[in-house]
């Protein structure tokens, strides 16, 4: 038996999907808030989203020097949309019903209460394991 046997992919425990009712304004036939199906993001998926939402901005007073800046609003919306399995936010009929043309616009229309949106974002970030920012981790490491 290989000394790496316990690290093989077949031994990896996978995180299951979960459900969450992000808003009280979408109700099922029994008057209960509709639950969305949420899946965890992989490290690779989260990194791709982070990269897509990061731009290089020039550093004042330092020609040809840049620093990365994360568009956190865009990052959050893309992260939420990537985690939602059901409803299908790419569905044209669903998008048309809200008058939007992207999953990120759709989620903001479906969950239009800022408090509910933030609660949902907190839930998804905690569930997927990205509830600590890089700055939080740096501060924690310093202490």
By DSSP (H or I, 4+ residues per run), the number of helices equals 6
Q: Point out poorly predicted stretches.
A: none
Number of strands: 5
The N- and C-terminal alpha carbons lie at a distance of: 42 Å
Rg, nearest Å: 19 Å
Helix content: 40-55%
- Helix/strand order, N-terminal first: EEHEEHEHHHH
Class inferred from helices and paired strands: alpha+beta
Proportion of strand residues:
5-15%
Main pleated sheet:
3 strands, antiparallel
Rounded average pLDDT:
89
Question: How are the strands of the biggest sheet laid out side by side?
Answer: 1-2-5
Shape: flat
Question: What do these coordinates show?
Answer:
With about 140 residues, this protein is α+β, with helices and mostly antiparallel strands. Helix content is about 45%, strand content about 15%. It has 6 helices and 5 strands; from the N terminus they run E-E-H-E-E-H-E-H-H-H-H. It has helices at about 45-50, 70-85, 90-100, 105-110, 115-130, 135-140; strands at about 20, 35-40, 55-60, 65-70, 85. The strands form 2 sheets. A 3-stranded antiparallel sheet has the order 1-2-5. A two-stranded antiparallel sheet has the order 3-4. A hairpin with a 7-residue loop joins strand 3 (about 55-60) and strand 4 (about 65-70). Helix 1 (about 45-50) runs antiparallel to helix 2 and helix 2 crosses helix 4 (about 105-110).
Q: Could you write a compact summary of the structure shown?
A:
It contains six helices and five strands; from the N terminus they run ββαββαβαααα.
Features:
143 residues, three-stranded antiparallel β-sheet, 6 helices, 13% strand
